[in-house]
Design goal:
heterodimer; A: alpha+beta; Rossmann fold; OB fold (Dihydrolipoamide Acetyltransferase, E2P); six-stranded mixed beta sheet; five-stranded antiparallel beta sheet; B: mainly alpha; MetI-like fold; 2 domains; two-stranded antiparallel ribbon; 13 helices; about 70% helix; globular; ABC_transporter_permease (chain B); cell membrane (chain B); transmembrane (chain B); MetI-like_sf (chain B)
């Protein structure tokens, strides 16, 4: 009982490849997030699973049944759209009941019970007679969720369901969706461009970029052991510092003459790249002589500050997280040092960090 | 729907003072106002408002053959007209025509628009074909259909010949002439109706259909429960336009049947024209014109009321 994608390809015309060789297995009852920048093909992949867009090549299997050529209704799934797809002329109750009524094989009592249950589950019972235009964004979103809940389907697809909501509401709905998924035991396949949504909700994340799968893993794996430079940069705020490095004789590498980082492994080429998370960089005030960087801007976030600094030697920008009571200001001269928790990338951007396995549990 | 904000309530008097101030025109404003409004006021006054008032005036008098008013009769003309059997029959003919034209135009327009909205290769050819009657003038359409209806060489006559069916006299039998006029009018209306409805159907968000597809809703159910309600404002608009247009039909009737045979297609507008310019009965004609105006005004009013309340979701 799972959803299996095997070598899914999508091409428009003959040369424009949107997705190539996407394979994964999504377990029943898991929260699976497909994430990537806009235009990476994530919505297309979701629509192909739903059956709304035909696949060019490959195989989609739901519960051991190949569904490549089945219409959406026979795949036994439900979908929540970014625009919510609510019928403006129907009340909340009728919106939720629409599919059940149309299919004609449900008794009136059955429909009523399921719709009322679904509305209760998303706390919309009191608004059941309102029209969508009389609802707030979050309430509309809940109607769309209720529609998915009312359907019997155990697989639910969501296409950027939170992107029309403001930041605070997004956090609230994130928790509600997560709770609902756990409560109903739904297999939830969720598309988003927001790495925070992916990290906070997912059991497994699939990262898509350049029409290819970059990595599939748990949030911890993705963050601690990114497969490549793209995945490392995509997760984490502010993004990881990717710096050029040059091999030296000892166990350190040179980012520039004033900034060395310790790494405990062999590297294949003389020049390569290292990745340092902003919270692994340390900053201290320094006089002109011992300083290796100067501060450009500081962002205050409440319990911490983000310091953006420029290296003196080769004008590289780095971001570092410091305590919120740290007394820095713009144009201060500083000395930047790094912990030795560093990722190493080869020139193709592939993560070649030694002992990356251990890092996951660190 | 607009909601007035309650947070910044300005006292009534202040608002009025402000408004009065706002509408105070200086010399320059008046100059521009007269330049912009002048031409249209002149044209509307000369060709719409003056004839309208004059018609109302004439309808309350008896007239001589030159159209000059003679004796004031008040509503006498109206009373006489409403009890005249030939006027009643003319009204009935008009209503039958309007109802048939409206139903057929909307039904066919909807059917074609729904077909043309399907994503199929080459569909744009059909879109162009279906809307082409928008560019055909009434006289050309009338001649075109006169050829088709011609009992000896027309297309329908030829078809009857092929299938050994009796030839239908489209324009000489009273019952058939009505249908001939209805068919021609519907054909003329179809281009516009099709185009407007196609636009409405295309603007229904695709995700509504996709959501329905995922839920297993049949395409027939989707058409009646998604498409129709979503385009209902447009549907109502087109119906009203068609109804008003049908009441005003003149050109096609004049060119195809001239109100005949035996007054079978003597619609209200055509009757007004004949009463005034053939019989010289200007008072009667003006009275009929006012009645027609009232009928059309009623439908226009209905459109506004209905649009406001029922159709707008």
């Amino acid at each position: 009982m799972s959803t299996v994608l095997t070598n899914i390809c999508k091409k428009y015309d003959s040369d424009k490849t949107v997705l190539s060789n996407v394979s994964t297995e999504i377990q029943t009852g898991e929260f699976f997030v497909i994430v990537g920048p806009s235009g990476c093909g994530k919505s297309t992949l979701l629509r192909m699973i739903a059956g709304l867009t035909p696949i060019t090549d490959g195989e989609i299997r739901i519960n051991d049944k190949v569904v490549n050529d089945l219409p959406p209704k026979d795949r036994n799934l439900t979908m929540v759209f970014q625009s919510y797809a609510l019928f403006p002329f129907l009340s909340v109750w009728d919106n939720v009941a629409f599919g059940l009524k149309a299919r004609n094989n449900n008794s009136q009592a059955d429909i009523e019970e399921r719709v009322n249950n679904a509305l209760r589950m998303v706390n919309l019972e009191e608004l059941k007679d309102r029209k969508p235009r009389e609802l707030s964004g979050g309430q509309r979103q809940r109607v769309a969720l209720a529609r998915a809940v009312a359907s019997d389907a155990k697989i639910c697809l969501m296409d950027e369901p939170l992107s029309n909501l403001d930041a605070q509401l997004r956090i609230k709905m994130r928790q509600e969706i997560y709770a609902l998924q756990r409560k109903l035991g739904l297999t939830l396949i969720y598309v988003t461009h927001d790495q925070v949504e992916a990290m906070t909700m997912a059991d497994h994340i699939m990262v898509l970029h350049d029409s290819k799968v970059q990595q599939i893993g748990t949030p911890t794996e993705i963050y601690k052991k990114p497969a490549n430079e793209f995945v490392a940069s995509f997760f984490g705020v502010p993004p990881i510092n990717i710096l050029p490095a040059i091999k030296t004789a000892g166990k350190t590498v040179n980012v520039n003459d004033d900034f060395q980082v310790k790494i405990d492994q062999q590297v294949p080429t003389d020049s390569f790249k290292i990745g340092i998370r902003p919270n692994e960089l340390m900053i201290e005030e320094a006089d002109e002589l011992s300083a290796n960087a100067s501060i450009r801007t500081i962002e205050f976030l409440g319990d911490e500050k983000i310091v953006y600094a420029k290296m003196n030697n080769n004008d590289i920008e780095v971001a570092a997280i410091v305590a919120s009571d740290a007394q820095f200001k713009a144009y201060d001269t500083i000395k930047v040092t790094s912990s030795d928790n560093v990722l190493v990338f080869n020139n193709e951007g592939v993560n070649i960090t030694k002992n990356a396995e251990d890092a996951v549990n660190a | 729907m607009l909601k007035t904000s309650t947070t910044d309530v300005v006292p009534e008097k202040k608002v009025q003072a402000k408004q009065r101030q706002g509408f105070k025109l200086n010399a320059k404003d008046k100059y521009y106002a007269s330049i912009f409004l002048g031409p249209s006021l002149l044209i509307l006054g000369l060709f719409v408002f003056y004839p309208m008032i004059k018609t109302l005036y004439i309808s309350m008098f008896l007239t001589n053959t030159l159209g000059n008013t003679t004796v004031f009769v008040g509503l006498g003309n109206y009373v006489k007209l409403i009890s005249a059997p030939d006027f009643i029959s003319s009204m009935m003919v008009t209503i039958l025509y309007v109802v048939a034209v409206t139903i057929l135009t909307i039904a066919l327009g909807l059917l074609l628009a729904n077909l043309a909205s399907q994503k199929l290769p080459g569909i744009s050819i059909f879109r162009t074909l279906y809307s082409v009657t928008m560019g055909v003038s009434v006289s050309v359409a009338a001649i075109f259909w006169l050829f088709i209806f011609n009992p000896s060489t027309g297309f329908f006559a030829l078809m009857s010949g092929w299938f050994n069916l009796p030839v239908v006299n489209w324009l000489t039998s009273p019952a058939n002439a009505m249908w001939a006029v209805i068919i021609t009018t519907v054909w003329m209306n179809l281009g516009f109706t099709f185009l407007i409805l196609l636009g409405a159907i295309e603007s229904v968000p695709r995700t509504l259909y996709e959501a329905a597809d995922v839920e297993g809703v049949s395409s027939r159910y989707q058409f009646f429960h998604i498409t129709i309600p979503m385009i209902s404002p447009t549907l109502f608009f087109v119906s009203t336009i068609t109804i008003i247009g049908a009441f005003k039909s003149f050109g096609l009737i004049d060119l195809i049947t001239k109100g005949g045979p035996t007054n079978a297609t003597n619609m209200l507008v055509y009757r007004i024209y004949k009463d005034a310019f053939y019989s010289g009965n200007y008072a009667k004609s003006s009275t009929e014109a006012i009645i027609l105006t009232v009928i059309i005004a009623f439908f226009t009013l209905l459109q506004f009321k209905f649009l406001e309340k029922k159709v707008n979701y």
